[in-house]
């Protein structure tokens, strides 16, 4: 549906976005996780054809979008709900009627308002709504545009429980209609509950993030290598960030061995295999109790060479540079 490759956006001498490839597929939801300043809003703005990257190619339905005319046409099919959406002058119902007038959108205003929990607000002046009410209005208005691609930037930032329920309803409705949805958030629970795929964005770069090996931490100040408590483990990472964050230890970057390796990996944890699951595509998921549960992914041949079974002692090694900071 919508894909981008080799995207690069710079601010002065700093690259705020450096993404090799991202694809949004019809009927699926992609969550983009990352802290403030990771580049989430910039990525969505580029994908919405609202900001031109310094380099890169965007493709919509297999056709490259390059010229201004092509970008204008693409914007008719891609809708972005901003983190701080704006209300148009007039009532809520007049805001909801805007897609039909301006973009040829269609759909039942009343049923969409009910689905998003704003049926009781239709006669209100839209500019008097609370933050959570405004987010629900923006979601309903976006759905009425009948987009092929729906981009949501921190849609639950108002901290409103009703708004969170509305986001889930909107995502469910969009997925059922075959819309490609991308959701930028810093909330792990919502991202995993609502999405088919989770990507992590840190320092402008994307990585696939799986639900395993995630730790909420507080990073100390300073630069370079830091030691951070992750449950019973002390994990060494390389980052200049400080404060609250989430660490992700990619299962594919964990090396299993029967004995400690002579390597540059700063993180070495002895443990015991507690589970082995075949995932298909030539991969096995190995769960290890190292004081804290960690999951590694290996090939069947690697597991046979190691001779590991449930109950086997094992050593996990991972480089400090492999640990992602979200």
What does this protein look like?
- The protein is an alpha+beta fold.
- It folds into three domains: about 1-210, 3-Layer(aba) Sandwich (Rossmann fold); about 215-250; about 250-320, Beta Barrel (OB fold (Dihydrolipoamide Acetyltransferase, E2P)), CATH 2.40.50.100.
- Helices cover about 25% and strands about 35% of the residues.
- The chain is built from eight helices and 20 strands.
- The strands form five sheets. Strands 6-7-8-3-9-10 form a six-stranded mixed β-sheet, with helices on both faces. It has a five-stranded antiparallel β-sheet with strand order 15-19-16-17-18. It has a four-stranded antiparallel β-sheet with strand order 2-1-4-5.
- Strand 12 and strand 13 (about 235-240) form a beta hairpin.
- Helix 3 packs parallel to helix 5 and helix 4 (about 110-115) crosses helix 5 (about 130-145).
- The longest helix is centred in the middle third of the chain and has 16 residues, at about 160-175.
- The chain starts with a strand and ends with a strand.
- About 40% of the residues are buried.
What labels would you give this structure?
Rossmann fold; 5-stranded antiparallel β-sheet; 24% helix; alpha+beta; 6-stranded mixed β-sheet; 8 helices; 326 residues; elongated; OB fold (Dihydrolipoamide Acetyltransferase, E2P)
